[in-house]
Amino acid sequence: MRATKRIFFPGLVALASALAQSFHIASPLVEEFRLIPGEVASSQVVLVNNTNAPLVVRLSQGDYRLRPEGPEFLPPGTHPRSNASWVTLSQAEVALPPGGQVAVSYQIRIPQDNKLSGTYFSVIFAEAAEPEPQAPGEAPVGIAIAQRLRYAVQVLVNIGNTGEPKIAFPKARLVTGEKEATLEVEVGNSGDRYIRPMVRLELFREDGSAVTSLQEGPVTLPPDSAILLRLSLPKLAPGTYQAALVLDGGGAFIFGKRYRFSLKE
């Protein structure tokens, strides 16, 4: 038997696609806190059993780093801005009754250190103890594949109102298809504070007339992170276009970039 893992991470997978699995998380997949040194806060992860049989779910902690190709998961305490040691889970394993739900609490205790500044973050993993059975016909003949479902809940703590995001747009390209086009933009945060902005895009023809506008998000950008935005556009006729991309994190945290590109026949 060969084992594989599927990780559901906010921004990568729609919750609706997870509901067909053995369990899902009903609480937010991104938890945000604004705390000061010495302060204590608590929250919970709500686990829901989607089956008519008992189910055991295991919880653990880790660090992560977002990259354009996908999240990189690390042992707890590895990332320089890890808050994994501040987070204490009430239990590492929980038995879910058939069709039922259980809330697992956790506590966040900020060290009494006045040098702390900006955002610190980690993840709480929730994983089915037993592999997910694969649907008949999905695996090659003679090979049994067990899939293990794992969620990653982001826990972000900002120290008061300290820190500042520094957003850059190092790469962008337009990918055209038969029915639509996609604007792919790499976005990075090299600052020391996270941002969860809404994404807005306005597309114009060369004469200034509007083609389309869209809004997506929010997207999560912790410090030392980069993601790839894929923004779907209608099929475009040959010509020259201008695009205005805005990441709106509220208040003073608004960042933008303008692009100009041409499509040939």
From TrEMBL:
<keyword id="KW-0732">Signal</keyword>
<protein>
    <recommendedName>
        <fullName>Pili assembly chaperone N-terminal domain-containing protein</fullName>
    </recommendedName>
</protein>
<feature type="signal peptide">
    <location>
        <begin position="1"/>
        <end position="20"/>
    </location>
</feature>
